[in-house]
Amino acid sequence: MNKDTRKQFNVYLGDLREVNDIEDTSVSFSVVPTAVQGLQDMIVEQSTFLPKINVIGVEHKEGQNVKTGITGPASGRTKTTRDIRRQPKRSMDLAVYGYKMEKVDTDLEMTYDQLDAWAHLGDLNKRIRQYAAEQIANDREIIGWYGESVAENSDPSENTMLEDVNKGWLQYMRDNKPENVLSEVVESSGEIRIGAGGDFENLDAVVVDLMAAIPKFLRKDLTVLVGDDLLMQQKSRIYSDNSLTPSEKAQAIAALREFGSLTADSPSNFPERGLVITSLKNLSIYHQTGSHRRNIKEETEYNRWMDYNSRNEAYVVETPEAFVALEFKNVKLKDGDTWV
């Protein structure tokens, strides 16, 4: 870590001390709300998917879902008398769902060589903040789709997609409304076969079938999220169809932006064989206000600085009745005559 880097890094640490009104960044401190909000905004900016959903600061570690919206008809008429009164509607008596936050650590290494390279570009302060925000954004996407459990000590070598760090949106559905996550078509098969001769001929058939499980009054602003393997299967069928001209193939590929009349999206870090139908605003990440703690300290024996971060988070499906999905681990595609 050269002299100029040390000078720029000291400015960065000084800014942290001033903003958070602390004397020493190497001792764990609670990040002030304004700094947390700035970090949250930067985290969202690092992702193409997170800006489309809800990222919300809430006060309590446990509670009922925050953004429950319109869940059914509520209008009517009543001829009131002394014995008959107007009765407010509970909107189709949908269930009440809750959340529980868990502590998530994001601990980042910044080597002297890495810091020297950033300092040489003249914007070390910005690059350090962006580095942390980009990592948290990426991990949030991964946990959102792959998170299944909350281990006391997570094991990244065994759970490479952060399956044991926190429960994501699909696990929220498995826990709260498992019937909306299709795990098989033929009983006891444990498989969902998509392709010619399978349970579903194509993705349009999957979408039409799954969407029927969402009540009509909740079918608003729906998007179908599709994994890369499923999209590639559809594209391969088009490319291998010799009856189509090149222009017809191009048109057919362009049409893959929509399935079953729903606009399709393929988010980064989404399961390759996953398929989810919901409104994007039905997906939320809650972070507990006042829970973000941090400390930054130098480890000269390893030629690095460490940036330790922790906060309480929960992944929430606001209205599970408006969410349906395939169990991506059970999806099988055809390879020749074999389902794999």
Structure notes:
The chain is of the alpha+beta class and 340 residues long. It has a domain at 181-282 and 322-339: 2-Layer Sandwich (hypothetical protein PF0899 fold), CATH 3.30.2320. Helix content is 30%, strand content 24%. It contains 8 helices and 17 strands. The protein has helices at residues 3-20, 33-45, 112-120, 124-146, 169-176, 203-211, 228-239, 246-254; strands spanning 29-30, 54-58, 62-64, 98-100, 102-111, 181-182, 192-194, 222-226, 258-259, 262-265, 275-279, 283-288, 293-299, 304-317, 324-326, 331-335, 338-339. Strands 1, 2, 5, 12, 13 and 14 form a 6-stranded mixed sheet that branches. A 6-stranded mixed sheet has the order 6-15-11-8-10-9. A 3-stranded mixed sheet has the order 7-16-17, with no helix packed on it. Helix 1 crosses helix 3 (112-120) and helix 2 (33-45) crosses helix 4 (124-146).
Q: What distinguishing features does this structure have?
A:
single chain, about 350 residues, alpha+beta, hypothetical protein PF0899 fold, six-stranded mixed sheet, about 30% helix, globular
Summary, kept brief:
This protein has 340 residues and is of the alpha+beta class. 30% of the residues lie in helices and 24% in strands.
Walk me through the topology.
Layout: H1 3-20, E1 29-30, H2 33-45, E2 54-58, E3 62-64, E4 98-100, E5 102-111, H3 112-120, H4 124-146, H5 169-176, E6 181-182, E7 192-194, H6 203-211, E8 222-226, H7 228-239, H8 246-254, E9 258-259, E10 262-265, E11 275-279, E12 283-288, E13 293-299, E14 304-317, E15 324-326, E16 331-335, E17 338-339
Parallel strand pairs: 2-12, 6-15, 7-16, 8-10
Antiparallel strand pairs: 1-13, 3-4, 5-14, 8-11, 9-10, 11-15, 12-14, 13-14, 16-17
Helix pairs in contact: 1-3, 2-4
